[in-house]
Amino acid sequence: MTDDRWPPPPPPDEPPDPSRPAEPMPLGAIIQRAFSIHRTAIGTFALIALVSAVPLAVLGTLYQLGSEPSDTSLRQSLALLVYASAALLLVQPTASGTAVATIDALHGRRPDASRALRAVGERIGPLFLVAAGFAVGVALGGAAFLIPGLVLCVIWLFAPLVVVTEDRGAAASFRRSVDLVRGRFWATAGTWIALFLVFGALGLAATLPTEWIAAAVADGDRAVVLANALALIPGILVLPLAHISLALLYAERARQADGRWPAPERDSLT
Fold first, then answer.
1. What gap in Å lies between CA 169 and CA 137, rounded to an integer?
2. pLDDT tens digits along 214-249
3. Per residue, what are the HEC states of 59-122?
4. Is residue 132 within 8 Å of 160, Cβ to Cβ?
5. pTM score of the predicted model
6. By the 8 A CB rule, do 250 and 243 touch?
7. Are 175 and 148 in contact (CB under 8 A)?
8. Could you tell me the residue ranges of all domains in the chain?
9. What is the model's pLDDT at position 191?
10. Helix (H, G, I), strand (E, B), or coil: what is residue 230?
C-alpha cells in the first residue's frame, strides 16, 4: 500500500533507452524538486548534514579566532587556503550522503540517514582520496591561473558523489565525472553557478540573524564562538538544499548519459 505521507517525484514511466537521451532538467525544475524532496524528509537530511556541519563549525570558529580581517600577508593567505581545502574535505561526507538519499527519493524510496551514511562509511577511503585530489587540483589550477581551476572544478564536480553512489575507485570516479560533463560543460557550469548563487544567498539570509544575536549578547571571541554555534541550526536546515540540488544535477547528467537514474543504494544485509 502506498504511503500517502511520502509522495516523491516518480521516476520516468517509459523503459530506459540509452540510445535516446532524456530531456535535460531545467534549472527551475532542479530547484523545485530539491525543495520537494527536502520538504518530505527534513529530519533525515538534517541528520546527514550534521556529519559535516559540526566539524565545519569548529573549523570556521578556529579560523576566525586566529585571523585578522586587515591582515593581507602571505601567511594569512596560506591560512585561508588551508581552511578552504579542509572545509572542502569535511563537506564531502554530507554531500555524498545527501546524494544517496536523493537518489533513493528519485526511485520512490523514503530517504534514510543510516543507509546513506553507511554507504559513505563503506567508501570513506576513496571518497577522501577524491576530495583531496579535487581540492589540490582546483587549488593549484586556481593559483596558477583562475581559468584552469574553474575548469577542473566543473569537470570533476561529480567525482565525490560518483565514488559513493556508484561505488567506484578514485581514478574511475574522476573519469566518470569528466564523461558526464563532456559535451555539457557550459550547461553544467552555468547551472552549478546559478544553484550556488541561489542557495548561497538563502544560506546567508538564514545565518545572518545568528550573527546579530551573537553580537547583541556577547563580544570579541565569545561572539564568534556563539555565532558559529547558533549558525548550526539554520545550517543543517538550509545546507541540504544545496547538496540535494547538486545531487539532482548529477542524477540528471547520469540519466542523459545512461538513460536511467543512478541505481539506489542497497539495503543492509545485517
1. 18
2. 888 888 888 889 988 888 888 888 889 999 999 999
3. HHHHHHHHCCCCCCCHHHHHHHHHHHHHHHHHHHHHHHHHHHHHHHHHCCCCCCHHHHHHHHHH
4. no
5. 0.84
6. no
7. no
8. 27-126+186-257
9. 94
10. helix
